[in-house]
Amino acid sequence: MTDLPELTGQRALVTGITGQDGSYLAEHLIGRGYEVWGIVRRCSTDNKSRLREILENPATANRLHLVDGDMCDSSSLRNAVNASRPHEVYNLAAQSHVQVSFEVPEYTADVCGIGALRLLEAIRECQPDARFYQASSSELYGKVVETPQTEETPFHPRSPYAAAKAFAYNITRNYREAYGMFSVNGILFNHESPRRGENFVTRKITLAVGRILAGKQKELRLGNLDAQRDWGFAGDYVEAMWLMLQQDQPEDYVIATGKTFSVRQFCEQAFAYAGMPIRWSGEGTDEVGTGPSGDVLIRIDPKFFRPAEVDLLIGDATKAKQQLGWTPRVSFEALAEMMVDADRCAE
């Protein structure tokens, strides 16, 4: 980051700052002259790799302050709010992997659901004028009742993660209506980047591409190839988060590209870009994807199927376009290629 603006006096507190969205948001806010505070959960291993560029740059290191905290611990959240005295709070912390939420449902509910409540209470008690952003999710729609999904589409969560996010969504609205707090939900559809966690399907695909090219992996195992998602670039989506907190009135917004692609199509885009176009054969769990040489590169593994599948998500971000002036910049094709390039270089 170069040519930074002067500090504006604005302070932001970000939970989940070490994650994909948190790191992009920190860069965005610092680029706008903010002083950024981030809550970091204590860990025995280094969990700040996505923030390294900020922390190791003398021009930005003094604009980012990290404090210990945990979404499961109210006192640590109050301490973070008191230390930072933020004008804006962005709650991005979550156990955000849907499949994992079936394995640790109670923990997921505690972090994603009750964690949001703990943070709202800390703000209400310590910094009630701060503006609050809650990272909601398109997974709320689950078994969709209409396509595309808008701010008015009813929710039908299909996982412990989505159910916990539904609580967080509603408690955010409740604090807005009950206490007059500036608290908003961003219902973000899938957003990816080279910083995406390695256990998420898009990153799993592009990592496999890099490793197969490097001779370190033979094949990729996936679950439901026909699940369709509205995929955008995380760097675009954090700008929408910021824009929501700059409005005169607090409202909730869908953030999406308005286009949907299947896991199968993401595979085809990523492998073809790397010079390995995929040919499909077989049916059901016996289906395989072979490369130009005839080697099997993709197999179906039933262990990756969800207990309750979400088949199709596609968002209508008309409200965000009209009221926030936000539109996505990075296309599906460019996103897949960006991620392949990053993981190919890493290998």
UniProtKB/TrEMBL annotation:
**What's the cofactor?**
NADP(+)
Query: Which InterPro entries does the entry mention?
Result: GDP_Man_deHydtase, NAD(P)-bd_dom, NAD(P)-bd_dom_sf
Q: Which GO terms describe its molecular function?
A: GDP-mannose 4,6-dehydratase activity; NADP+ binding
- Tell me which UniProt keywords the record has, alphabetically: Lyase, NADP
Q: Which family does it belong to?
A: Belongs to the NAD(P)-dependent epimerase/dehydratase family. GDP-mannose 4,6-dehydratase subfamily.
Role summary: Catalyzes the conversion of GDP-D-mannose to GDP-4-dehydro-6-deoxy-D-mannose.
Protein name (Swiss-Prot/TrEMBL): GDP-mannose 4,6-dehydratase
Which organism is this protein's natural source? Thalassoglobus neptunius
* The gene coding this protein: gmd_2
